[in-house]
Amino acid sequence: MKYKFIWLFIAVLCSTATFAQITVKGSVKDKTALPIPGANIIVKGTGASASTDFDGKFSIVVPSKDAELQFSFIGFTTKLVTVGDRTTIDVVLEQTGQNLDEVVVVGYATVKKRDVTTSISSVKGKELQTMTVGNATESLQGKVSGVQITGAGGPGAQPRVLIRGISTINLSTDPLYVVDGIPMGTSINFLSNNEIESMDVLKDASASAIYGSRASNGVILITTKKGKTGKPKFNVDLSRGFQMMDNPYNMADAEGYANIMNKAYTTSGYSEYLPNAEQYKGKTTDWWGAGIKKTSPVTNASIGVTGGSEKNTYAASLNYYKSDSFYGIGGWERITARVANDFKFSDKVSVGVTLNPRFETWGSPGNWADFDKIDPITPIYKPADQLNGTENEYSIYARSPSYVWNPVASVARYDDYTDQYSLNTNAYLQYEPIKGLVFRTQGSIEVGDKTQSIFRPDFIIDAAHEKAEINSVERKNTTNHDWTWQTTATYNKTFADKHNVSLMVGATMEEYNGNDVWAYGEGVPNNTDLMREVNAATKNRNSGGNSWSSSLQSYLSRLSYNYDSKYYLTGSFRRDGSSKFMANNKWANFPAASASWRISNEGFMENTKEVINDLRLRAGWGKVGNQSLPGSVYQSNIGQGYYVIGGEVVDTSYPSSMANKDIKWETVEDINFGLDFGLLKNKISGSLEYYEKTTKDMLFLKQFPTYSGFPGYSTMWTNVGSMKSNGIDLLLSYKDKKGSFSYGADFTFTTVNVDMISLSADGEKLYGSSNRTLTVEGDEPGYYYGYVADGLFQNQTELNSHTDNHGTKLQPYAKVGDIRFKDVNGDGKLDDKDRTKLGSPWADFTMGLNLNLAYKGFDLIANFYASVGNELINQNISDLYNGASLTNKVAGLENMAWHGEGTSNYVPRLSKNDDNENFTKFSSLYVEDGSYVRMKNIQIGYTFLNQFGLDRLRLSLSGQNLWTWTNYTGVDPEVGGGVLGSGFGGWNYPVQPTVLMGVNVGF
What does the DSSP assignment read for 68-101? Predict the structure, then answer.
């Protein structure tokens, strides 16, 4: 009887608990009564959650009538509702309007977007994840005004990112990346798109000065995904596709090549190079088909989970990316994981820790140009009668008379791969003793290990030229251990309901340490994989190593004030001390100030609310610095070399670099004026900004003049002068919704003008890229510098009249059909003084257009990017058109090249001898219009909500870089390079068209 009573009590208790639960149904709509699909509903204080379907309807079980439901959706104000006695709840969410209540990261703090006084552009992670790329910054292309991104082809290649143009002439132009508050250097190849919550780009100095000495190229702040209160939510993202590689040129076949070379020889007075060209018909060697794959796979996969309670939230993800090369071997593979845990011990104390382990491996042959350049007559392999059976597997290939090494053989020999392991830990402690006062300390440690293994087998394809008589093995290992620590105190207070004050002070310390060792040896007994170790080498063993360290200590502060959300003032100050400079210049100060006036909040604007929803003026000023130079510039170094004395080679030493104890920081001073606006219920929004920045004391690695007594190859870092740039940024956005159809468009426009103000000496000239670029006072840096190709000599009269005042020919070795080089200075001579400006690698403006459409479950995204007004150098012209080399040529060159008066005024005559230096002189022949428009991405998708037992299922099909319009005849118009060597295109690894299918699952 006793046990029956117990079981009855338990049953009653369970039934009571069951009856206490309430099922609540309802809908979520906007103010126009349109349903909001995908809105989130959370039972506050529990792990229960749900989301709305396509009709905006939901159903959720709550524990009692006292439960509170939290309704949220991106772009709408979150609403909290108590259940009470209701079982049906219909909620109307209000749009935030231009997302002004969103929080953006400003450096050591976050503020509402409406309160930002500086130039900051924010992009959400969801926008980045529409593209499958190895480096997340590629997804920014065209989405942010003021940011120019030049894609880099090749697995693992890093794009060039310029924020409002260039700020220096010799150092890195890449911005500083700060991930979750920790400076991570100038590359984010280690970070997956799927890990990113948002990217905030600090474009002007008033925004980036808080990062001081490393902010001269701008700063990109990245916030990774964190845990959210609620039951565990899993997300699986998979995209798989292929990159396409088409031959960029229509190269001559065997017969066509014979005709071209025969003409080059006969016009130069020689007999035919390949008599009876018809014999080669149908005998073309398909080098491209033998060595280049038309498609190469790319895979991106991610699985993540978020969840937690009000005391503890967590987020974890595992990400995989692989991009194969088009050689059939090599590529780039990356595996990353991120685990973030945040604990709230009380209303005053919270802590968090993030672990980010990662692994990368890469390696790929770099000789794809040779598949086009090698002649189409040489076979891939040696004929059987040329083999004697003693050759190893790398010696069976044929040798081309063109002196281009057999590319199929080169790929077969390739063995150069790098593995890298890294672990980054990031932890913080936050304490709020009283309301509004927050102390935060945060530290990060990163350790890494990179190993490069190289093996070069022995082979003999040609005894005189193409061979390696002894094999070699090399191993390089680099380790790093870096740490950062930063502590800040922030106080926020509102006085009299209208005076809002925020004060932050802090200090940071950073240290970067590393070392490398290498070993080399020759004469490994054989070429098998197991023997490719340094220990197996029997000859010429050698080894070496080095270590390095640098540190940075900083103090920082920021004061912000706004009155009644109308008038805003912000000032910041940072003081940096770097180990890279000597005592006199070790410390530098980086102040900044900005202000804004929200005109739309003024009383006199009340009658304009229907049209003007937001109107704000901004102005900012600041100083930032650059210390991206080696840590030992204050040391003099001795180099090792050799010299022939008395017929013998002897080892020598020489001063390779000289110390400069007076070297100081490179500084950029920046001013910015901006206008932000929102019109017609914020359907139209945007910003217009003007910026101007001046770089002073630019750091540059200069060679010693020979009269100094030091060798001409001795160098010294020094401060060389100043540079000024200015331009405008424009962002226009339009967003609207009609029933179930929503649509929007974003347009970005950026201009950059750069001029050198001064150099270290009057009339000084800085050359770059083998003296093919020039930088002088009063002009833009790194412009193309060479001879003017003034058409072709069409007849003997033109040739004879190209003389000085005395009738002496300016080009004595020229013949009809050769290039006429212009006597620019008119002195009657053709010499170095006639070299002049040929063009600029810097675009007049760049543009981006981003379109998005959605109807119920369907969505369409399209992104376009344009660069206009720059020139590029097509270095392939010499390979494709020059008859003096035995490399293959473009098909039909014998008809394209000059072969009679009026037949061409661009491609010189075919000739075995380039006596006129048509192709060896750097001239405007190589300069082409580099403008282009590219469709970066187009994607169509369909989303199922709350079906198949899943919260979300999205299927997508996308194409990246499928279409490009350009007049540039090189391989790819996206050409980067350093400041003094930018825009030199050639056989660069192209940005490849890619087609992908994607699946995204949430449950």
Answer: EEEEE-TTB--EEEE-TT-SEEEEEPPB-STTTT
Are 139 and 131 in contact, with CB atoms under 8 Å apart? yes
| 795: number of Cβ within 10 Å | 12
> Tokens 């964190």 correspond to what residue?
226
Q: Whole-angstrom Cα distance, residue 817 to residue 894?
A: 13
User: How far is residue 597 from each of residues 118, 121, 561, 611, 615, measured CA to CA in Å?
Assistant: 12, 19, 12, 19, 8
Q: What is the dihedral of CA 143, 147, 148, 152, to 10 degrees?
A: -70
The count of other CB atoms within 10 Å of the CB of residue 825 is: 12
Place of tokens 């117990």: 6
Q: How far is CA 525 from CA 270, 494, 501, 531, in A?
A: 48, 78, 74, 7
Residues 771, 785: Cα–Cα separation, whole Å: 8
What 8-state DSSP symbol labels residue 217? Answer: T
Could you count the other beta carbons within 10 Å of the beta carbon of residue 599? Answer: 17
User: CA quadruple 29, 35, 36, 40: dihedral positive or negative?
Assistant: positive
10-residue stretch averages of pLDDT, the chain, 1003 residues long: 46 44 86 78 78 83 85 79 88 68 76 81 85 84 88 81 86 85 85 87 89 88 87 91 93 96 94 93 94 93 91 93 92 94 92 94 91 95 88 93 93 95 95 93 95 95 90 95 95 90 94 94 91 91 89 94 92 91 86 93 86 92 84 64 65 66 85 93 92 89 60 70 92 90 93 91 84 93 96 95 89 95 92 95 94 91 94 95 94 94 95 94 96 94 86 91 94 90 89 92 89
Residue-wise pLDDT for 54-84, tens only, equals 778 888 888 888 888 888 876 677 888 888 8
Tokens 């010294």, located at residue: 716
How many C-beta atoms surround the C-beta of residue 661 within 10 A? 12
Cα–Cα distance, 896 to 909 (Å, whole number): 9
Question: How much is the pTM?
Answer: 0.87
State whether residue 508 is helix, strand or coil.
strand
Alpha carbon distance 53, 947 (integer Å): 9
Q: Please measure the distance between the N-terminal and C-terminal CA atoms of the chain and give it in whole angstroms.
A: 47
